[in-house]
Specification:
Blueprint: E1 7-8, E2 10-14, E3 17-23, E4 26-39, E5 49-51, E6 62-64, E7 86-94, E8 102-109, E9 114-120
Antiparallel strand pairs: 1-9, 2-3, 3-4, 4-7, 5-6, 7-8, 8-9
Protein backbone atom coordinates (compact mmCIF):
# COMPACT_ATOMS: atom_id res chain seq x y z
CA UNK A 1 0.00 0.00 0.00
CA UNK A 2 2.55 2.60 -1.04
CA UNK A 3 1.56 6.15 -1.84
CA UNK A 4 -0.29 7.13 1.33
CA UNK A 5 0.69 10.68 2.18
CA UNK A 6 -1.40 13.07 4.27
CA UNK A 7 -4.63 11.11 3.62
CA UNK A 8 -7.62 12.17 5.73
CA UNK A 9 -8.62 9.52 8.28
CA UNK A 10 -11.14 9.04 11.06
CA UNK A 11 -9.50 8.09 14.35
CA UNK A 12 -10.92 6.53 17.51
CA UNK A 13 -8.90 7.37 20.62
CA UNK A 14 -8.80 5.58 23.94
CA UNK A 15 -6.70 6.75 26.86
CA UNK A 16 -5.46 9.71 24.84
CA UNK A 17 -3.83 7.66 22.07
CA UNK A 18 -5.21 6.33 18.78
CA UNK A 19 -6.81 2.89 19.03
CA UNK A 20 -8.09 2.42 15.47
CA UNK A 21 -8.53 4.42 12.28
CA UNK A 22 -10.46 4.28 9.03
CA UNK A 23 -8.31 4.76 5.93
CA UNK A 24 -9.66 4.40 2.38
CA UNK A 25 -12.61 2.38 3.65
CA UNK A 26 -10.49 -0.09 5.66
CA UNK A 27 -10.43 -0.27 9.44
CA UNK A 28 -6.92 -0.46 10.92
CA UNK A 29 -6.36 -1.51 14.53
CA UNK A 30 -3.34 0.01 16.27
CA UNK A 31 -1.17 -2.82 17.55
CA UNK A 32 1.52 -0.63 19.10
CA UNK A 33 2.34 3.05 19.57
CA UNK A 34 5.97 3.36 18.47
CA UNK A 35 6.48 7.07 19.20
CA UNK A 36 4.67 10.32 19.86
CA UNK A 37 5.80 13.90 19.40
CA UNK A 38 4.47 17.41 18.91
CA UNK A 39 5.53 19.64 16.04
CA UNK A 40 5.13 23.22 17.21
CA UNK A 41 3.54 25.74 14.91
CA UNK A 42 5.03 29.16 14.36
CA UNK A 43 8.49 27.86 13.53
CA UNK A 44 9.81 29.09 10.22
CA UNK A 45 13.04 28.32 8.48
CA UNK A 46 14.63 31.24 6.67
CA UNK A 47 16.02 30.33 3.27
CA UNK A 48 19.76 30.91 2.83
CA UNK A 49 20.66 34.08 1.01
CA UNK A 50 23.43 33.82 -1.56
CA UNK A 51 25.77 36.79 -1.53
CA UNK A 52 27.64 37.33 -4.77
CA UNK A 53 31.02 39.00 -4.94
CA UNK A 54 30.29 42.68 -4.95
CA UNK A 55 27.98 44.86 -2.90
CA UNK A 56 27.82 43.66 0.69
CA UNK A 57 29.41 40.26 -0.02
CA UNK A 58 32.08 38.85 2.28
CA UNK A 59 35.60 38.72 0.90
CA UNK A 60 35.75 35.94 -1.69
CA UNK A 61 31.94 35.77 -2.15
CA UNK A 62 30.13 32.78 -0.68
CA UNK A 63 26.94 32.20 1.22
CA UNK A 64 25.50 34.28 4.02
CA UNK A 65 22.90 32.51 6.12
CA UNK A 66 20.53 34.74 8.05
CA UNK A 67 19.24 33.78 11.50
CA UNK A 68 17.48 30.48 11.03
CA UNK A 69 14.92 30.28 13.82
CA UNK A 70 12.88 33.18 15.13
CA UNK A 71 11.92 33.44 18.76
CA UNK A 72 9.13 31.01 19.64
CA UNK A 73 5.88 32.70 20.59
CA UNK A 74 4.34 31.81 23.97
CA UNK A 75 1.95 28.86 23.92
CA UNK A 76 -1.32 29.74 22.25
CA UNK A 77 0.10 32.85 20.58
CA UNK A 78 1.54 31.63 17.33
CA UNK A 79 2.93 33.97 14.72
CA UNK A 80 0.67 32.50 12.02
CA UNK A 81 -3.01 33.31 12.54
CA UNK A 82 -4.97 30.17 13.36
CA UNK A 83 -1.87 27.93 13.47
CA UNK A 84 -1.78 25.20 16.09
CA UNK A 85 0.70 22.60 17.17
CA UNK A 86 0.51 19.27 15.35
CA UNK A 87 0.47 16.04 17.32
CA UNK A 88 2.06 13.03 15.59
CA UNK A 89 1.63 9.40 16.61
CA UNK A 90 3.81 6.77 14.91
CA UNK A 91 1.89 3.52 15.13
CA UNK A 92 2.10 -0.08 13.97
CA UNK A 93 -1.35 -1.08 12.70
CA UNK A 94 -3.02 -3.86 10.73
CA UNK A 95 -6.28 -4.08 8.77
CA UNK A 96 -7.09 -7.52 10.16
CA UNK A 97 -5.84 -10.29 12.39
CA UNK A 98 -3.87 -11.95 9.57
CA UNK A 99 -2.90 -8.76 7.69
CA UNK A 100 0.62 -7.39 7.58
CA UNK A 101 1.48 -4.85 10.26
CA UNK A 102 2.29 -1.49 8.65
CA UNK A 103 3.77 1.67 10.16
CA UNK A 104 1.85 4.95 9.89
CA UNK A 105 2.25 8.49 11.14
CA UNK A 106 -1.14 9.69 12.37
CA UNK A 107 -1.17 13.49 12.57
CA UNK A 108 -3.70 15.55 14.46
CA UNK A 109 -4.20 19.29 13.97
CA UNK A 110 -5.75 20.60 17.16
CA UNK A 111 -8.17 23.39 16.28
CA UNK A 112 -9.56 21.73 13.16
CA UNK A 113 -9.66 18.33 14.88
CA UNK A 114 -8.39 16.99 11.58
CA UNK A 115 -6.52 13.69 11.37
CA UNK A 116 -4.34 12.50 8.51
CA UNK A 117 -2.23 9.41 7.86
CA UNK A 118 1.09 8.93 6.12
CA UNK A 119 2.52 5.49 5.49
CA UNK A 120 6.09 5.15 6.77
CA UNK A 121 8.16 3.07 4.38
CA UNK A 122 10.60 0.94 6.30
CA UNK A 123 13.78 -0.04 4.55
CA UNK A 124 14.48 -3.71 3.99
CA UNK A 125 16.83 -4.92 6.73
CA UNK A 126 18.09 -7.98 4.82
Amino acid sequence: MPGIHDEPVEVVRRGGGPEQFLLRGRLYVVREVLARWVEPSGWRWAAPVQAFAGAGAPAGGGWQVPGVLPRRQPAGRNSVAGATDREVWRVAAAAGRNSAVLVFDLCHSGEESRWSATRVIEEDQS
